[in-house]
């Protein structure tokens, strides 16, 4: 959690990550503004389906980085 109070207002943490499950409460587009998380979820899904993580050619992340930076700026961090 970068800005805000988190789930319980005390420890600043938000959401849950358990095994291959991600849970979060947020307002706005999580995956487009966090391309690394979208990539990881795709890798985990492919690993579950095929038993291993296939080697995927990386795509340019310029637009995703700009969206992430814009979200951080809007949040004041």
Architecture overview:
Strands 1-2 form a two-stranded antiparallel ribbon. It has helices spanning 35-50, 62-75; strands at residues 16-18, 21-23. The mean pLDDT is 79. By secondary structure, it is mainly alpha-helical.
**Class from helix and strand fractions:** mainly alpha
Strand content: 5-15%
Give me the strand/helix succession: EEHH
Q: Report the biggest beta sheet as strand number plus sense, adding barrel if it closes.
A: 2 strands, antiparallel
What is the mean pLDDT? 79
Write the layout of secondary structure elements.
Layout lengths: L15 E3 L2 E3 L11 H16 L11 H14 L2
Antiparallel strand pairs: 1-2
Question: What characteristics describe this protein?
Answer:
two-stranded antiparallel ribbon; mainly alpha; 2 helices; 8% strand; 77 residues
Short description:
The protein has 77 residues and is mainly alpha-helical.
